[in-house]
Design brief:
single chain, four-stranded antiparallel beta sheet, globular, six-stranded mixed beta sheet, 10 strands
């Protein structure tokens, strides 16, 4: 299970988002050029928890794989922002009927209610199979990408590379 972060920096004068970022809960927001933090092994199955701390919904696309949406869950955003600790404040919610059971390549990472201190995590499960039985070289498969599918967000650093290790 990987705890991944969806965040935005806001313009201090207007409050409008000026830079979207992806990263990890532990490391915080990361730029495209930051070291790769997602490195699943070939044929491994992983759950990615997409912690949305923004006021926007983000259609997250993961290249190479198809996945299923497991659930969504609200967490205490104020506590997370002040301590880095995650405390869930509601039980997990099943995906919408049109999201289950179905294979996806884009998941809506919904926002919570940041104005009231609520964040939302979207959990997806995916298997990192290489196409046509290909095998990963010793250094790993060259990078694939996971990103927000909103063009303005992609263009403003809400995109990260990942590699598939042998």
């Amino acid at each position: 299970t990987r705890q991944l972060l969806l965040s935005e920096d806001d313009d201090p004068t207007t409050g409008d988002p000026i830079e979207g970022m992806l990263g990890t809960v532990a490391a915080g927001p990361l730029h495209w050029s930051s070291p790769i933090t997602e490195d699943p092994r070939t044929n491994s199955t992983e759950v990615w928890e997409l912690y949305n701390v923004t006021t926007d919904g983000h259609p997250i696309h993961v290249h190479l794989v198809r996945f299923q949406i497991l659930n969504r869950q609200k967490f205490d955003l104020n506590r997370f922002q002040s301590t880095g600790q995650i405390r869930f404040i509601a039980p997990p919610e099943a995906p919408a009927p049109n999201e289950r059971p179905a294979w996806k390549d884009v998941a809506k990472a919904l926002p919570g209610d940041p104005d009231n201190g609520v964040g939302m995590v979207t959990r997806i499960i995916q298997k990192f199979e290489l196409p046509n039985g290909a095998s990963a070289p010793p250094q790993g498969v060259p990078p694939y990408v996971w990103h927000c599918h909103i063009l303005e967000h992609e263009d403003n650093d809400m995109m990260r590379p990942y590699i598939v290790k042998p």
